[in-house]
Amino acid sequence: MKIEGLDNLEKSLNELSANAKKLSGTSAIPFDELFPPSFMRHHTDSSSIDEFLDNSPFTIESEEDFLAIPDEEWDNYIVAHTDFSSWEEMQGKAAEDYVVKQLGF
Q1: Could you give the CA distance from residue 72 to residue 63 in angstroms, rounded to a whole number?
Q2: Residue 36 DSSP symbol
Q3: Which residues neighbour 32 within 8 Å (Cβ) at sequence distance 6 or greater?
Q4: Cα 13 from Cα 93, distance rounded (Å)
């Protein structure tokens, strides 16, 4: 007796497992991958992460510049230009979307 669909299920589970293994070694995700244009258009008033950073009131030319922005000021910018209440919330949603996409859902 053969049950229909088990081959497809097994293939899907194997792909999911392979994608999960790839993710397990990821330690840093570039901003342009974490915040793709589709994410930015849906959740912000910018079409890309570069545009979003460029439109901010801060001079951001390096990672150090970005890290030097006071958290409260950055959160105020996030609230004014996204549908998130904080940078932490925005990063969390972006990470969630990234993982879902990488897993193949």
Answers
A1: 18
A2: -
A3: 48, 49, 50
A4: 24
Which residue type occupies 29? I
Least confident of 4-18, 26-40, 61-75: 4-18
Q: Determine the Cα–Cα distance for residues 24 and 17; give it in Å rounded to an integer.
A: 11
| pLDDT tens sequence across 17-34 | 555 555 555 567 888 999
For the record, the structure tokens of 50 come out as 């570069």
Asked whether the beta carbons of 29 and 101 are under 8 A apart, the reply is no
Return the C-alpha torsion angle 66, 49, 28, 75, nearest 10: 50
